[in-house]
Amino acid sequence: MLERINPDARWSDAVVVGNLIFVAGHTAEKTRGQSVREQTEEVLQLLDETLAQAGVTKRNLAMVQIYLADMSNFDQMNEAWDRWVIPGEAPARATVESRLAYPDLGVEITAVASR
Fold first, then answer.
1. Where does the sequence pass through the membrane (predicted)?
2. Can you give the pLDDT of all 115 residues of the chain as single tens digits?
3. What is this structure's pTM?
4. Which is the most buried residue in 47, 71, 86, 89, by most CB within 10 A?
5. d(Cα 62, Cα 6) in Å, to the nearest integer?
């Protein structure tokens, strides 16, 4: 049985399958076009909110995939990430450079968590 979190016509913010939570790619809304650090801070907050709706927290993250529009912003993204992640409880993570849907998006983050 599937549980969809905030479904709309194109996607759901997350889909729960058994004890696994598959989180859709989250991008900045309010800070779109601003620095990658600011966008990452907002995206991580949105990720927290989606996880809460699934009944878990960032402590439940198993894997995170981070897409940067420009890898030269890796340090900015990590500034926000390092303040957000719980020391000793970091999920597995991959960070890649990828063209994102809009030119003013600098970062997109998706994840898999467990209940």
1. none
2. 899 999 999 999 999 999 999 999 999 999 999 999 999 999 999 999 999 999 999 999 999 999 999 999 999 999 999 999 999 999 999 999 999 999 999 999 999 999 9
3. 0.96
4. 47
5. 21
